[in-house]
Structures are given as C-alpha cells and as structure tokens.
Amino acid sequence: MNNKDDEKNKLQLNRTNFILLLVAAIVLVVGYIIMSFNEITISPILLVIAYAVIVPFALLYHPKKK
Q: How far apart are CA 26 and CA 55, in angstroms?
C-alpha cells in the first residue's frame, strides 16, 4: 500500500467525534451507576443507546467539508 491508501483507511477523528465519544462515555458511566442502584428499567436503555447508537455514530460521523 502506498501512503494515500493508508490515509483513506485510517479513522480521521476530529473534535466533534471526540466530544461524541465523551458523551457516550458519560452515558455509559451514568448507566452503570444507575444499574448499581438495582434500577433495571432505565439503565439497560441507557447502555443500549450508548453502545448501539452513540459510539458507532461518533466513530462514523464525518462533518461535511465546505
């Protein structure tokens, strides 16, 4: 592979991606804290949202270039 192929294959994360990953981490921590209080309704919903929605979106999101 040449250098241009390496650039295309890398995840190019910017500030927005890291902010979304931080939000996902916060939602995960809150979900696990709520789970520790034996709340079995809200915590799984938060964890599924974080793992299945926010993290993939944060990794795959690419803002439109102007």
A: 11
